Amino acid sequence: MGNRGRMGSFLTELFRGKGFEIKGSDILDENTDRRESEIRNSDAVVLAVPQEVALKFVKDHADLKNIIEIGSVKTIFSEFVGKIVCIHPLFGPLSHKNKARKQIIFIDDISPPEKKEMIMKLFGQIELVSMTADRHDRIMADILVAPYIISILSSRVEIHKDLSTRSSRLLEHMADISKAESGEVLKKTISMNPYSPLIFRKIMEGIRDLGGEI
Predict the structure, then answer these.
(1) Which of 11, 5, 18 is nearest to 124 (CA)?
(2) Is the same domain home to 25 and 56?
(3) Confidence (pTM)
């Protein structure tokens, strides 16, 4: 699901390269009967769609086996313990060629433990890291939400191409993070993570502390 998006296209190419037969479907497809038939006849359904769309899909197809959800917020799926496979690949179309190790987080308090083997078969040479949905969202608040917020703020600072310092170049790199991502994905990653308010408070406290020095 979501094969026309950036992540969906990347996964389609990745899985086909490993010899799997892939049938792509998009949430905008009008032929819902055909899509539903393909879903029902698939060995697994990978949801490369916005989080709210994934949540609705899971609710509407709770009887299906091997639904694989890959989004960046996990606690919203806590009611589906044992019914879906929750993972979070920490690589994608912009980073998969990097030499850094490829990690996938496996949400072990939602996903059936026996599904680890299926994930390893699908993705190949990856490092599978197990953790709870709550711990995942806490960590993502620090390593995804915070960089996204800072990047969005950085993108609003005027860049002077004719003059630069090391600091300004680093600021430009920070701004590039949000520019490379879908605006909708950024907003949902921030708004749906239950620990985002903590990050906002830390940032605001830092700004207030700086204000005291001006």
Answers:
(1) 18
(2) yes
(3) 0.86
